[in-house]
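=== RUN LOG ===
request id: a7f3
mode: sequence -> structure
chains: 1
length: 404
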Amino acid sequence: MNIEKIRNDFPILDQEIYGHQLVYLDNAATTQKPQCVIDAVSHYYEKDNSNIQRGVHTLSERATADYEAARETIRAFFNAKSTKEVIFTRGTTESINLVASSWGNANIGKNDEILITHMEHHSNIVPWQMLCERTGAILKVVPMNEAGELDMAAFSTLLSERTKLVGVVHMSNALGTINPIETMIQQAHNVGAKVLVDGAQAAAHMRTDIQALDIDFYATSAHKMYGPTGVGVLIAKEALLNAMPPYQGGGDMILMVTFEKTQYNALPHKFEAGTPNIAGVIGFGQAIKYIQSIGLDKIAAREKVLLDYATTKAQSFAGLRQIGTAKEKACVLSFVLDGVHPHDLGTILDREGVAIRAGHHCAMPVMQFYKVPATARASFSIYNTEAEVDALFAALTKAKDMFA
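=== RESULT ===
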Protein backbone atom coordinates (compact mmCIF):
# COMPACT_ATOMS: atom_id res chain seq x y z
CA MET A 1 0.00 0.00 0.00
CA ASN A 2 1.44 3.35 -1.08
CA ILE A 3 0.64 5.58 1.88
CA GLU A 4 2.23 8.65 0.31
CA LYS A 5 0.03 8.26 -2.75
CA ILE A 6 -3.01 7.98 -0.49
CA ARG A 7 -1.94 11.04 1.50
CA ASN A 8 -1.67 12.99 -1.75
CA ASP A 9 -5.37 12.31 -2.31
CA PHE A 10 -6.18 14.50 0.71
CA PRO A 11 -5.26 18.14 0.02
CA ILE A 12 -5.92 19.33 3.58
CA LEU A 13 -3.01 17.28 4.93
CA ASP A 14 -0.48 19.41 3.04
CA GLN A 15 -0.34 22.33 5.47
CA GLU A 16 1.43 23.55 8.57
CA ILE A 17 -0.13 24.37 11.94
CA TYR A 18 1.92 26.73 14.14
CA GLY A 19 4.95 25.98 12.00
CA HIS A 20 4.58 22.20 12.21
CA GLN A 21 3.40 19.76 9.56
CA LEU A 22 -0.23 18.92 10.33
CA VAL A 23 -0.71 15.59 12.09
CA TYR A 24 -4.44 14.87 11.95
CA LEU A 25 -5.47 12.27 14.54
CA ASP A 26 -9.12 13.23 15.06
CA ASN A 27 -10.60 10.79 12.56
CA ALA A 28 -13.21 9.38 14.94
CA ALA A 29 -14.82 12.84 14.97
CA THR A 30 -14.61 13.27 11.21
CA THR A 31 -12.32 12.01 8.47
CA GLN A 32 -10.69 14.22 5.88
CA LYS A 33 -12.00 14.28 2.31
CA PRO A 34 -10.14 13.01 -0.76
CA GLN A 35 -9.94 15.21 -3.83
CA CYS A 36 -12.35 12.95 -5.73
CA VAL A 37 -15.09 13.66 -3.16
CA ILE A 38 -14.39 17.38 -3.23
CA ASP A 39 -14.51 17.28 -7.02
CA ALA A 40 -17.81 15.38 -7.05
CA VAL A 41 -19.46 17.97 -4.81
CA SER A 42 -17.98 20.85 -6.84
CA HIS A 43 -19.09 19.26 -10.12
CA TYR A 44 -22.67 19.11 -8.95
CA TYR A 45 -22.70 22.80 -8.05
CA GLU A 46 -20.75 23.87 -11.13
CA LYS A 47 -22.50 21.73 -13.76
CA ASP A 48 -25.65 20.01 -12.48
CA ASN A 49 -27.09 22.19 -9.73
CA SER A 50 -30.83 21.56 -9.81
CA ASN A 51 -33.51 20.01 -7.66
CA ILE A 52 -34.01 16.29 -8.16
CA GLN A 53 -36.96 13.99 -8.91
CA ARG A 54 -39.39 16.72 -9.93
CA GLY A 55 -37.67 18.19 -12.98
CA VAL A 56 -37.77 17.14 -16.64
CA HIS A 57 -34.94 19.38 -17.84
CA THR A 58 -31.38 18.16 -18.38
CA LEU A 59 -29.80 19.48 -15.18
CA SER A 60 -32.48 17.90 -13.00
CA GLU A 61 -32.24 14.61 -14.85
CA ARG A 62 -28.44 14.51 -14.45
CA ALA A 63 -28.63 15.43 -10.76
CA THR A 64 -31.33 12.82 -10.14
CA ALA A 65 -29.31 10.15 -11.93
CA ASP A 66 -26.20 10.87 -9.82
CA TYR A 67 -28.24 11.01 -6.61
CA GLU A 68 -29.88 7.64 -7.27
CA ALA A 69 -26.60 6.14 -8.46
CA ALA A 70 -25.15 7.01 -5.05
CA ARG A 71 -28.05 5.19 -3.41
CA GLU A 72 -27.20 2.05 -5.37
CA THR A 73 -23.49 2.40 -4.53
CA ILE A 74 -24.34 2.55 -0.84
CA ARG A 75 -26.82 -0.33 -1.10
CA ALA A 76 -24.16 -2.54 -2.67
CA PHE A 77 -21.44 -1.49 -0.22
CA PHE A 78 -23.54 -2.59 2.79
CA ASN A 79 -25.30 -5.40 0.89
CA ALA A 80 -28.78 -4.11 1.59
CA LYS A 81 -31.47 -6.08 -0.20
CA SER A 82 -32.91 -3.18 -2.18
CA THR A 83 -32.47 0.55 -2.75
CA LYS A 84 -35.96 0.83 -1.23
CA GLU A 85 -34.24 0.11 2.09
CA VAL A 86 -31.71 2.98 1.75
CA ILE A 87 -33.02 6.19 3.30
CA PHE A 88 -30.89 9.34 3.15
CA THR A 89 -30.79 11.45 6.32
CA ARG A 90 -28.62 14.18 7.82
CA GLY A 91 -26.51 11.55 9.58
CA THR A 92 -26.49 8.80 12.19
CA THR A 93 -28.23 10.98 14.75
CA GLU A 94 -31.20 11.73 12.51
CA SER A 95 -31.37 8.10 11.40
CA ILE A 96 -31.71 6.92 15.00
CA ASN A 97 -34.24 9.64 15.80
CA LEU A 98 -36.25 8.61 12.73
CA VAL A 99 -36.48 5.04 14.04
CA ALA A 100 -37.27 6.14 17.60
CA SER A 101 -40.02 8.49 16.43
CA SER A 102 -41.58 6.53 13.59
CA TRP A 103 -41.09 2.87 14.50
CA GLY A 104 -40.86 3.56 18.23
CA ASN A 105 -44.09 5.53 18.57
CA ALA A 106 -45.94 2.84 16.64
CA ASN A 107 -44.46 -0.21 18.36
CA ILE A 108 -43.32 0.68 21.89
CA GLY A 109 -45.77 0.82 24.78
CA LYS A 110 -45.90 1.05 28.54
CA ASN A 111 -43.55 -1.39 30.35
CA ASP A 112 -41.94 -2.52 27.10
CA GLU A 113 -38.16 -2.61 27.37
CA ILE A 114 -35.45 -1.03 25.24
CA LEU A 115 -31.96 -2.37 25.78
CA ILE A 116 -28.83 -0.32 25.02
CA THR A 117 -25.22 -0.58 26.20
CA HIS A 118 -23.05 1.41 28.58
CA MET A 119 -20.75 2.54 25.77
CA GLU A 120 -23.34 4.17 23.50
CA HIS A 121 -22.92 7.60 21.96
CA HIS A 122 -25.48 10.10 23.24
CA SER A 123 -27.33 9.81 19.92
CA ASN A 124 -28.12 6.17 20.77
CA ILE A 125 -29.17 7.01 24.33
CA VAL A 126 -31.19 10.22 24.31
CA PRO A 127 -33.74 9.32 21.57
CA TRP A 128 -34.63 6.15 23.50
CA GLN A 129 -34.91 8.05 26.79
CA MET A 130 -37.28 10.47 25.05
CA LEU A 131 -39.29 7.54 23.65
CA CYS A 132 -39.53 5.99 27.12
CA GLU A 133 -40.77 9.31 28.51
CA ARG A 134 -43.48 9.43 25.84
CA THR A 135 -44.62 5.84 26.16
CA GLY A 136 -43.82 4.60 29.65
CA ALA A 137 -41.33 2.06 28.30
CA ILE A 138 -38.28 1.06 30.36
CA LEU A 139 -34.67 1.67 29.31
CA LYS A 140 -32.15 -0.93 30.41
CA VAL A 141 -28.38 -0.86 30.03
CA VAL A 142 -25.89 -3.66 29.32
CA PRO A 143 -22.86 -3.14 31.60
CA MET A 144 -19.23 -3.28 30.53
CA ASN A 145 -15.98 -4.27 32.23
CA GLU A 146 -12.81 -2.28 32.95
CA ALA A 147 -11.34 -3.20 29.56
CA GLY A 148 -14.31 -1.61 27.85
CA GLU A 149 -15.95 -4.86 26.76
CA LEU A 150 -19.65 -5.65 27.08
CA ASP A 151 -20.76 -8.13 29.72
CA MET A 152 -22.37 -10.64 27.38
CA ALA A 153 -23.68 -12.79 30.23
CA ALA A 154 -25.54 -9.74 31.54
CA PHE A 155 -26.80 -9.03 28.03
CA SER A 156 -28.30 -12.50 27.80
CA THR A 157 -29.90 -12.08 31.23
CA LEU A 158 -31.35 -8.66 30.42
CA LEU A 159 -32.99 -9.91 27.22
CA SER A 160 -36.57 -11.02 27.73
CA GLU A 161 -39.92 -11.25 25.99
CA ARG A 162 -40.47 -7.63 27.10
CA THR A 163 -37.44 -6.46 25.07
CA LYS A 164 -38.73 -4.76 21.94
CA LEU A 165 -35.53 -3.17 20.67
CA VAL A 166 -31.77 -3.50 21.19
CA GLY A 167 -29.64 -0.48 20.29
CA VAL A 168 -25.93 -1.23 20.04
CA VAL A 169 -22.88 0.55 18.68
CA HIS A 170 -20.79 -1.60 16.35
CA MET A 171 -17.55 0.18 17.32
CA SER A 172 -17.30 2.54 20.29
CA ASN A 173 -16.20 6.05 19.38
CA ALA A 174 -14.81 6.63 22.89
CA LEU A 175 -13.01 3.30 23.37
CA GLY A 176 -12.54 1.69 19.96
CA THR A 177 -14.22 -1.51 21.20
CA ILE A 178 -15.71 -3.69 18.46
CA ASN A 179 -18.86 -5.29 19.80
CA PRO A 180 -20.02 -8.84 18.91
CA ILE A 181 -23.09 -7.64 17.04
CA GLU A 182 -23.67 -10.92 15.20
CA THR A 183 -24.20 -12.77 18.49
CA MET A 184 -26.25 -9.91 19.92
CA ILE A 185 -28.54 -9.77 16.90
CA GLN A 186 -29.16 -13.53 17.00
CA GLN A 187 -29.99 -13.47 20.71
CA ALA A 188 -32.22 -10.42 20.34
CA HIS A 189 -34.14 -11.99 17.48
CA ASN A 190 -34.62 -15.13 19.56
CA VAL A 191 -36.80 -13.12 21.96
CA GLY A 192 -38.56 -11.24 19.17
CA ALA A 193 -36.68 -7.94 19.56
CA LYS A 194 -35.58 -5.70 16.71
CA VAL A 195 -31.98 -4.45 16.56
CA LEU A 196 -30.60 -1.04 15.64
CA VAL A 197 -26.86 -0.93 14.94
CA ASP A 198 -25.00 2.37 15.18
CA GLY A 199 -22.37 1.95 12.48
CA ALA A 200 -20.96 5.48 12.52
CA GLN A 201 -17.48 4.48 13.72
CA ALA A 202 -17.25 1.05 12.14
CA ALA A 203 -18.42 1.65 8.58
CA ALA A 204 -15.12 2.97 7.22
CA HIS A 205 -13.01 0.37 8.99
CA MET A 206 -14.65 -3.04 8.59
CA ARG A 207 -17.14 -4.88 6.42
CA THR A 208 -20.80 -4.73 7.38
CA ASP A 209 -23.12 -7.09 5.51
CA ILE A 210 -26.67 -6.02 6.36
CA GLN A 211 -28.30 -9.19 5.04
CA ALA A 212 -25.78 -11.67 6.46
CA LEU A 213 -26.01 -10.06 9.90
CA ASP A 214 -29.81 -9.79 9.61
CA ILE A 215 -29.76 -6.18 10.84
CA ASP A 216 -33.18 -4.56 11.25
CA PHE A 217 -32.00 -0.93 11.38
CA TYR A 218 -28.53 0.35 10.49
CA ALA A 219 -27.39 3.97 10.80
CA THR A 220 -24.19 5.68 9.70
CA SER A 221 -22.77 9.02 8.56
CA ALA A 222 -20.85 10.02 5.44
CA HIS A 223 -18.43 12.37 7.19
CA LYS A 224 -16.76 9.52 9.07
CA MET A 225 -16.28 7.69 5.76
CA TYR A 226 -14.31 10.38 3.86
CA GLY A 227 -17.59 11.93 2.70
CA PRO A 228 -19.32 15.28 3.26
CA THR A 229 -20.82 16.45 6.53
CA GLY A 230 -24.57 16.73 6.99
CA VAL A 231 -25.54 13.51 5.21
CA GLY A 232 -25.99 9.93 6.32
CA VAL A 233 -28.14 6.89 5.80
CA LEU A 234 -30.67 4.67 7.51
CA ILE A 235 -30.81 1.17 6.06
CA ALA A 236 -33.79 -0.83 7.31
CA LYS A 237 -35.77 -3.87 6.30
CA GLU A 238 -38.37 -3.05 3.68
CA ALA A 239 -41.21 -4.66 5.62
CA LEU A 240 -40.44 -2.51 8.66
CA LEU A 241 -40.23 0.69 6.60
CA ASN A 242 -43.49 -0.07 4.82
CA ALA A 243 -45.27 -0.43 8.16
CA MET A 244 -43.76 2.73 9.64
CA PRO A 245 -45.51 6.11 9.35
CA PRO A 246 -43.55 8.96 7.73
CA TYR A 247 -41.09 10.78 9.95
CA GLN A 248 -41.68 14.20 8.35
CA GLY A 249 -44.23 15.61 5.96
CA GLY A 250 -43.54 17.77 2.92
CA GLY A 251 -42.48 17.58 -0.67
CA ASP A 252 -41.45 14.38 -2.46
CA MET A 253 -42.73 12.04 0.29
CA ILE A 254 -46.22 12.23 -1.20
CA LEU A 255 -48.06 10.83 -4.20
CA MET A 256 -51.23 12.88 -3.86
CA VAL A 257 -52.38 15.63 -1.50
CA THR A 258 -55.87 17.01 -0.89
CA PHE A 259 -57.16 18.91 2.12
CA GLU A 260 -59.02 15.76 3.13
CA LYS A 261 -56.24 13.17 2.76
CA THR A 262 -52.62 12.61 1.70
CA GLN A 263 -51.34 9.50 -0.05
CA TYR A 264 -47.70 8.81 0.77
CA ASN A 265 -44.98 8.01 -1.73
CA ALA A 266 -43.35 4.61 -2.10
CA LEU A 267 -40.04 3.71 -0.47
CA PRO A 268 -37.49 5.15 -0.13
CA HIS A 269 -39.02 8.56 -0.88
CA LYS A 270 -41.64 8.15 1.86
CA PHE A 271 -38.94 9.10 4.39
CA GLU A 272 -37.14 11.79 2.38
CA ALA A 273 -39.31 14.88 2.77
CA GLY A 274 -38.12 18.12 1.18
CA THR A 275 -35.07 18.96 -0.87
CA PRO A 276 -32.25 16.69 0.33
CA ASN A 277 -28.54 17.33 0.58
CA ILE A 278 -28.07 16.46 -3.09
CA ALA A 279 -24.40 17.39 -3.32
CA GLY A 280 -23.73 15.58 -0.03
CA VAL A 281 -25.34 12.37 -1.23
CA ILE A 282 -23.38 12.48 -4.48
CA GLY A 283 -20.21 13.07 -2.47
CA PHE A 284 -21.15 10.18 -0.16
CA GLY A 285 -21.37 7.86 -3.13
CA GLN A 286 -17.96 8.99 -4.34
CA ALA A 287 -16.50 8.44 -0.86
CA ILE A 288 -17.75 4.86 -0.89
CA LYS A 289 -16.10 4.34 -4.27
CA TYR A 290 -12.86 5.73 -2.85
CA ILE A 291 -12.97 3.21 0.02
CA GLN A 292 -13.64 0.44 -2.48
CA SER A 293 -10.69 1.56 -4.63
CA ILE A 294 -8.35 0.84 -1.70
CA GLY A 295 -10.25 -2.10 -0.21
CA LEU A 296 -11.74 -2.40 3.26
CA ASP A 297 -9.57 -5.39 4.13
CA LYS A 298 -6.41 -3.44 3.29
CA ILE A 299 -7.67 -0.44 5.23
CA ALA A 300 -8.43 -2.56 8.30
CA ALA A 301 -5.04 -4.29 8.17
CA ARG A 302 -3.14 -1.03 7.82
CA GLU A 303 -5.07 0.68 10.61
CA LYS A 304 -4.42 -2.29 12.91
CA VAL A 305 -0.68 -1.86 12.34
CA LEU A 306 -0.98 1.81 13.31
CA LEU A 307 -3.06 1.10 16.42
CA ASP A 308 -0.68 -1.64 17.56
CA TYR A 309 2.27 0.71 17.06
CA ALA A 310 0.60 3.49 19.04
CA THR A 311 -0.57 1.13 21.78
CA THR A 312 2.94 -0.23 22.30
CA LYS A 313 4.28 3.31 22.70
CA ALA A 314 1.44 4.19 25.07
CA GLN A 315 2.14 1.18 27.29
CA SER A 316 5.70 2.36 27.88
CA PHE A 317 4.83 6.05 28.37
CA ALA A 318 5.13 6.89 32.06
CA GLY A 319 2.03 8.47 33.56
CA LEU A 320 -0.28 7.57 30.68
CA ARG A 321 -3.37 5.50 31.44
CA GLN A 322 -5.21 3.94 28.52
CA ILE A 323 -8.99 4.10 28.63
CA GLY A 324 -10.36 1.09 26.77
CA THR A 325 -8.19 -1.98 26.30
CA ALA A 326 -10.63 -4.43 24.73
CA LYS A 327 -9.18 -7.42 22.90
CA GLU A 328 -11.31 -6.54 19.88
CA LYS A 329 -10.82 -2.87 19.08
CA ALA A 330 -9.80 -0.61 16.23
CA CYS A 331 -8.43 2.83 15.38
CA VAL A 332 -8.93 4.58 18.73
CA LEU A 333 -6.39 5.31 21.46
CA SER A 334 -8.10 7.04 24.40
CA PHE A 335 -6.05 8.01 27.42
CA VAL A 336 -5.43 10.35 30.34
CA LEU A 337 -2.04 11.74 31.37
CA ASP A 338 -1.18 12.24 35.02
CA GLY A 339 -1.34 15.87 36.06
CA VAL A 340 -2.62 17.22 32.74
CA HIS A 341 -6.30 17.83 31.98
CA PRO A 342 -7.26 16.44 28.56
CA HIS A 343 -8.40 19.88 27.39
CA ASP A 344 -4.99 21.36 28.26
CA LEU A 345 -3.37 18.42 26.54
CA GLY A 346 -5.37 19.00 23.37
CA THR A 347 -4.35 22.68 23.31
CA ILE A 348 -0.66 21.93 23.87
CA LEU A 349 -0.63 19.26 21.19
CA ASP A 350 -2.33 21.63 18.76
CA ARG A 351 0.62 24.03 19.14
CA GLU A 352 2.81 21.15 18.02
CA GLY A 353 0.63 20.61 14.95
CA VAL A 354 -1.04 17.47 16.35
CA ALA A 355 -4.84 17.42 16.18
CA ILE A 356 -6.55 15.11 18.68
CA ARG A 357 -9.95 15.22 20.40
CA ALA A 358 -10.32 16.01 24.10
CA GLY A 359 -13.58 15.74 26.01
CA HIS A 360 -16.34 13.28 26.80
CA HIS A 361 -16.81 12.37 23.11
CA CYS A 362 -20.61 12.42 23.49
CA ALA A 363 -20.25 9.39 25.75
CA MET A 364 -20.60 10.80 29.26
CA PRO A 365 -21.62 7.46 30.83
CA VAL A 366 -18.28 6.03 29.64
CA MET A 367 -16.40 8.85 31.41
CA GLN A 368 -18.47 8.27 34.54
CA PHE A 369 -17.62 4.56 34.45
CA TYR A 370 -13.88 5.29 34.37
CA LYS A 371 -14.25 8.16 36.89
CA VAL A 372 -12.60 10.71 34.61
CA PRO A 373 -14.01 14.07 33.45
CA ALA A 374 -12.73 13.55 29.91
CA THR A 375 -10.13 11.72 27.87
CA ALA A 376 -7.67 12.59 25.15
CA ARG A 377 -8.38 10.58 22.02
CA ALA A 378 -6.11 9.92 19.08
CA SER A 379 -7.89 8.13 16.27
CA PHE A 380 -6.34 6.77 13.11
CA SER A 381 -7.23 6.51 9.45
CA ILE A 382 -5.74 5.15 6.26
CA TYR A 383 -3.64 8.26 5.58
CA ASN A 384 -1.88 8.28 8.97
CA THR A 385 1.72 7.10 9.42
CA GLU A 386 4.05 5.77 12.09
CA ALA A 387 5.93 9.08 11.87
CA GLU A 388 2.72 10.84 12.90
CA VAL A 389 2.35 8.51 15.87
CA ASP A 390 5.93 9.43 16.82
CA ALA A 391 4.99 13.12 16.54
CA LEU A 392 2.03 12.49 18.87
CA PHE A 393 4.23 11.00 21.57
CA ALA A 394 6.92 13.64 21.12
CA ALA A 395 4.22 16.26 21.73
CA LEU A 396 2.97 14.31 24.76
CA THR A 397 6.49 14.34 26.15
CA LYS A 398 6.59 18.15 25.82
CA ALA A 399 3.24 18.44 27.55
CA LYS A 400 4.35 16.16 30.36
CA ASP A 401 7.55 18.19 30.84
CA MET A 402 5.57 21.44 30.96
CA PHE A 403 3.46 20.18 33.86
CA ALA A 404 6.24 18.33 35.66
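=== NOTES ===
The chain is about 40% helix and 15% strand.
The chain has two domains: 3-25+295-402, 38-292.
=== END ===
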